[in-house]
Amino acid sequence: MRFSIERDTLTEAVAWVARALPTRPVLPILSGMLVTATSAELTLACFDYEISARIRVPAEVAEPGTVLVPGRLLAEITRSLPALTVQVDDAASDVTLTCGAASFTLVTLPVGDYPPLPELPVLAGTVDGAVLAAAISQVVPAASRDDTLPILTGVNIELTGDTMTLAATDRYRLAMRELGWDPTQPDVAATILTPARTLADAARMMSQGTPVQVLLRHQAGSDEHAADAMIGFESAGRRLTTRLIAGEFIKYKSRFPGEFGCCGDMPAALLAEAVKRVALVAERGTPVRLSFEAGMVTIEAGTEGQARARETVTAEFEGDEHAIAFSPHYLLDGLGAALTAAASADGDEARIRVQFSGPSKPAVISGVLRKKAAAPPDFRYLVVPQRALTDG
């Protein structure tokens, strides 16, 4: 194998694939990155039986071939190279990278021992990359990081006709986002539980105006929870696949209350910035409190004898309960996601809506537009108030 490629192109491609390499591979061979040169194209890939990543980039190939090299070491080397063309040659048992005056020789791993990359021939549908990436960024923060409860570490993807619904929870908050997509079968109906961390990595390869292909190991209607069930995302020469999480997600839609006793609407950007500032003095376990009155909301945090902060923002409010408190971390995650949901390209005013019925009952945060305030929101964030967390 012999090829040449621009340093930046190689570095970006290697770094992207290296993110999917296992931190502690169960087999040493799984730490390798598969490098394949064919005609005018270079393919980099990895697979550890759970997650696979593959990227194709242009290269000047003199001799096609395939080698397996230590992946993380290759990533460190390519980052350090000068901004020149990289020449790659392989011999009997090693690979040499030359870039300007720098030269590295890597011992290759046995290609025959590496597992074949998974194939996902079934195209479930396509979706705009920017829309799906935004939806993923809104729900992933709500997923649990406790690996002892695998089901809660995933994002539930529900496919129903031309609607895709993403949901995640860690038991104290629940994020849900609906978006449109273009299914290959108009009557598609499937529920897929995808690891949140891998889904977040997939979002990094998505961009505005570039369609993302959603690929499934099983066709809709089959057992999506089978042991070998997988989902894949492919866009602009990049493909990321992951094995699905076995098990059934919670019945999350029923967790959202049908009605609320209180509702506050506030300017999205002003509220988010005010909460960020006030939260600076909120130590661990200290909530951020929202107190509503005529025409405004007061955001405050802190304790007696320590740093305190308060700020007011204009607000429209209806209801009998005038105060509610949240964990700063949970509140900031919800506001950030709601702010994304309320973003408007036509200049409409973005608002944050907080609905609740009492200081200890779950509240819902959503992003709305002033001109479309009556329309159901695409994103909803259910969060347990701080008082409920400390009391129960």
Characterize the biggest β-sheet.
Answer: 9 strands, antiparallel
CATH architecture of the largest domain: Roll
> Helicity level, as a percent range?
10-25%
Instruction: Indicate the overall shape.
Output: elongated
Number of strands: 27
CATH superfamily of the largest domain: DNA Polymerase III, subunit A, domain 2
Cα-based radius of gyration, to the nearest Å: 25 Å
N-to-C span: 63 Å
The share of residues in extended strands comes to: 35-45%
Counting helices, strands and paired strands, the structural category is: alpha+beta
Nearest-integer average pLDDT? 91
Number of helices: 7
CATH topology of the largest domain: DNA Polymerase III, Chain A, domain 2
In which order are the strands of the major sheet placed? 6-2-3-4-18-17-16-10-14
Oligomerization status of the protein chains = single chain
CATH top level class name of the largest domain: Alpha Beta
Number of self-contained structural domains:
3
Which segments are poorly predicted (pLDDT under 50) over 5 or more consecutive residues?
219-223, 388-392
